[in-house]
Amino acid sequence: MTHDIFGQDTSLTAGAALNDWNAVQLGILSHSASTAQHLAAVLQSAPRFALGHAIKGLSLLMLGRSELIPSAREALRDARACYETALPRERKYIDALGSWLQGQPSRAVSQMEEVLARWPQDSLAMKLSHGIRFILGDAKGMRGSLERVLPTYAPDHPGRGYLLGCHAFALEETGEYERAATAGRQALWTAPDDAWGLHAVAHVHDMTGNARAGLEWLEGREGAWAHCNNFRYHVWWHKALMYLDLGQMDQALALYDTKVRSDKTDDYRDISNATSLLMRLELEGVSVGDRWEELAELCAQRTEDGSLVFADLHYLMALVGHRPEEAHRLVQRIHSDGRSPQTEAQTRMASPGCAAADGLEAFGEGNYAAAFAHLCAARPTMQLAGGSHAQRDVFERITIDAGLRAGRLNEIETLLDDRRRLRGGTEDNYSLARRELIAEARNPSAPTSVPAE
């Protein structure tokens, strides 16, 4: 019996295939751009490696694109054709792929947890459970999973640094900011290419309103994310947000052009980086020129996707105010999916999707009272859209600004107080500026900066 880099039994026997498989696993943990190349090599040299086919299918589903579902089904077919020769641990991955293709990603998570219950040092299962829970907006589940396996990892375990990086992110998403920063730094010391751990510390600086320290953290550590797939654009996005908070809008726009949007892809993660950054800039009164046009053109082709509500809402952000017909078509499709939910994705279209979509459309039409009402209705379940607190904050900012423009000052103060509690009692410059706007609006002798409805 051979073993992989994490000490797990594997049905692979050829040395070259095993080396490529180890590179696949480390690549998934480090978000490496070379991962797909290594996986292709594994499947070419070991075409009956069921786990390789399962990982191919799971990776396709994590891209959140409906047109990739047939390819994921083919991967499941190929994996099941080798089911009898797969080891018990490997079969769990095949079952997880099948569950997700049936519209039950939470069942896929449970199957990864079954792996971890018996093989807690399987770092690939750890990362997949973490990643799917992230898509589902399950921060507490992320943290619980990691803390169950953390005591089993020796200091020299090859996956320990990446585990610490995931733990740092889960700690941050559950409000343990000081512990998260410590864990993220330990992750990077242990695994210098752990971009996820590095970015978890960036999240801490975002959530504690310390953009200057965030820039200092990222400065000089570009090597930790230079090897990444498109995740590298997301780290640059964090840096752009820090410049924005400091009022350095030119630097934020420069990063948008040269890093965040250097490749004009329609990957939903790249779209979410771009749309949310442009929206934040516009809410601060910055003219972004014609940058919306390129995004709207791409997003107009994604209105029927329906894979992830997180993706749909960011597509919609690019369309409202720029492509109203396509925006309305997307809103209608979200409502259609939500009326008779048969999958977990469609359940999230129903809530928070429908209310959030109505709010974004109303905001784009300048109907700020309606936008505020709809977006407030979406807030209690917004975490189910997935993503991080920092990513979802764009919807919170739109809600707050809609309320300001509608004159709902008391309600906006409550939202700002909630936002401050989420951030450990700290406030960023966005919140401080909105409190100043509220104070100006309440003082009739002072000129108001609040736009009229």
What does this structure look like?
With 453 residues, this protein is mostly helical. It contains 23 helices and two strands. It has a two-stranded antiparallel sheet with strand order 1-2. A hairpin with a 5-residue loop joins strand 1 and strand 2. The radius of gyration is 22 Å and the shape is globular. The relative contact order is 0.07.
SSE map:
Layout lengths: L1 E2 L5 E2 L4 H16 L4 H11 L4 H13 L6 H13 L6 H14 L3 H14 L4 H14 L2 H11 L10 H14 L3 H14 L4 H13 L3 H8 L12 H15 L3 H12 L7 H16 L7 H9 L9 H11 L4 H16 L4 H21 L3 H11 L10 H17 L3 H14 L6 H14 L11
Antiparallel strand pairs: 1-2
User: Secondary-structure element order, as H and E?
Assistant: EEHHHHHHHHHHHHHHHHHHHHHHH
How many extended strands? Answer: 2
Main sheet: strand order: 1-2
Distance between the termini: 70 Å
**What is the average of the pLDDT values?**
96
Helical fraction: 55-70%
Oligomer: single chain
Q: Roughly what fraction of the amino acids lie in strands?
A: under 5%
Protein structure class: mainly alpha
The outline comes out as globular
Main beta sheet: strand number and arrangement? 2 strands, antiparallel
Poorly predicted regions are: 448-453
The whole-angstrom Rg is: 22 Å
Please outline what is shown here:
With 453 residues, the protein is an all-alpha fold.
Salient structural properties:
single chain; 1% strand; two-stranded antiparallel ribbon; 453 residues; 69% helix; 23 helices; mainly alpha
